[in-house]
Structures are given as structure tokens and as C-alpha cells.
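User: Some background: our group keeps a shared notebook of sequences we're curious about, and every so often someone picks one and asks for a predicted structure to add to the entry. Today it's my turn. The entry only has the sequence so far, pasted here. Could you supply the structure so I can complete it?
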Amino acid sequence: MRISILEDDPDQLALLRRWLTEDGHDVHGYQSGRDAMKFAGRESFDLFILDWQVPDVSGADVLMWLRTNVSMQVPVLFVTVRDSEQDIVFALESGADDYMVKPARRQELLARVHALLRRAYPREEEKLMSFPPYEIDLTRGEVRRGGDAIELTPKEFELTVVLFRNVGRLLSRGHLQEAVWGRSGDLVTRTVDTHVSQVRKKLDLRAETGYRVVPIYNYGYRLEQIGESASSAA
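Assistant: Of course. Here's the predicted structure to add to the notebook entry:
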């Protein structure tokens, strides 16, 4: 998962980044509220971890900005020294999903992150994803339409899974890059665009088949469901 952390203490930021990276996540750290908001407006994330007391824009203000301008659904976890009941209630009522008081403990932090991600993206036990007329077999690494297998490269299959797991959600190119290719700094943006184009063509993603890929200029892509075609995951 792709996680954004707002934490102005460089040592604390490095510690949280190490714990989450070792847990298998792609982590982006910011030491100012303005930077966290700037990149949240340019990139998509699966989870936000916010400190409250940062030098410029407070974590509470960043939270309210995220809920107004980015998403009401992406989970937000506060990790802060502020421990009054008033602060905790304010954060939760302003849209935070969970709240931890520092010092953060590794196992507790990871357990809370796992719980938030499970609730927001419930898919750990999936073996077959059904999005009529498409079926995505995660065990066999195969996409079928109307029972017929569609020939995809491994990266095209991974990209297909990411797009269908996030139907209706706008994903930045950087998010897609990390989800499919990892944190590869030398991967050019055009590679993402080319693979999206190939997936669109091979799966015939258009209104008539119930799904279409919508490019968002200078940002990324959103897979949209069209009409009455229902999607579910088994």
C-alpha cells in the first residue's frame, strides 16, 4: 500500500518509514503540512499518517483539507503527542479514522495500519474477482471475458488487478508505478501510459463492455464502471 506520513521530527519520520517499509508498504514522508498537502493534491495514497504539531500547517488542518479536497474515504491515522480527550474527539469527529498517542510502538502501529487498510480495502482473501463480463483469477494470474482468457503480460495483469481493485478511484501515475513496478526511479511515465493503453485495448474497455479507463491530464487514470454492470469480489 502507498502511505503518506506527515512528521516534522526527522528521526521519528525515519523510524516510522522504516517500520512501514519493512512491512511491505511504499512510504512517502513530509516534514511540513504544506508539503503533505501539495503532494496529496498531485498524487494518490492509500493511507495518511498525520502528526498534529508541525511548524506550518497543523495536522488537524491538513486532515480537514484532505477531507474537503482529496477524499472522504482514504483512511487517516493520527500519531501525535497530544493526548487530551478533547483533541482525540476533535480529530475523530473531523474525519480521522484512528488516533495513537506517542511514543508509537511498532507492533501497535502496524496493527492499527493493518486494521484501517483491511476496512478500507477488504481483499486479502480474494482468489477470484468478478466484474462482469470480466473475471480476474488471482491464483492463475489470468483475466477472462465471457469465459475466454485474455492474453496479458505479467505487468499488464498486475496493472489490471490494481485498476479493478480501485474502480471509480483516481490513481496517480506514481501510485500505479509503485503498485506495479515498485519504487523504480528510472521508470519513465510513458511506460505507465503505454501499459494502460495496452490493457484498455486488450480488455476492450469501453462503455459497451461496462468499464472505461479515463485519463486525467497531468495526474493519472480512473477505471469507471458504466451503466448497470455490477461489480463484486469473491
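Suggested note for the entry: Residues 229-234 have pLDDT under 50 and may be disordered. The first helix runs from residue 10 to 22.
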